[in-house]
Amino acid sequence: NLPAIYLPTLISIQFTIPALILFVVGVTVFLFKRYQNELDKTLFFIIATWFFLPLLAILIVKPTIYDNFRHFLFITPPIFLFAGLGFKFISSKINKKTHSFLLILAILLPGIIAIINLHPYQYIYYNGFIGGVEGAFRRFETDYWYTSYYECTSYINQVSSKNDTILVYGPSHIVEYYARKDLTIIQYNKKHAESQFEESDYAIISSRGNKDLYLLADEQTIYTIEESGATLAVVRKLK
Q1: What is the dihedral of CA 1, 138, 157, 198, to 10 degrees?
Q2: What are phi and psi of 237, to 5 degrees?
Q3: 142-151: average pLDDT
């Protein structure tokens, strides 16, 4: 049920803004050079087909999309080819080395800052067009690989009693890998939810699908994993 424009929207809010600007400039230069017959026809066909044809097919067919656009990473190399062309065009207009250095710094800095600030959740990055991670929260996917479950498990290892049972929404194998050996890990099953709630001492719940808002919402939240204004997961102590 996603709109056809979903994938282009994701691309426009998950790359850094400088990269997107370079891409737009690069595509403009690319088309202009082809119009002026300054670009090899074969090269034009390969690059254009590599990006625009798959994108057009996705818009028309509307295939199943989940976990953002990681299944369509094959169309990202042309984006950077276009961005490189845009960078070459802009840098050709700059004569001073100092200005070139500042240009490179302006292009790289947003990505570098995001990598540092979001660690270890760099892959949840969103740019300023949507208000960063906070603006994308509960509107687009964030921690869809449940990376935050490592921190949740580390916390439970410290506060839980011996032989406690931990109920996990989503991939319980992540928790099993890091949990103390005496803990019992069970994966949430909607059919057996009531009995699972009764036998569990703690629950780890991701914010994916807004499960943290309604799954065991009356229970005490004792730990929250937050990053840049977005809640990634919560730990709840069950009565």
Answers
A1: -70
A2: -95, 125
A3: 97
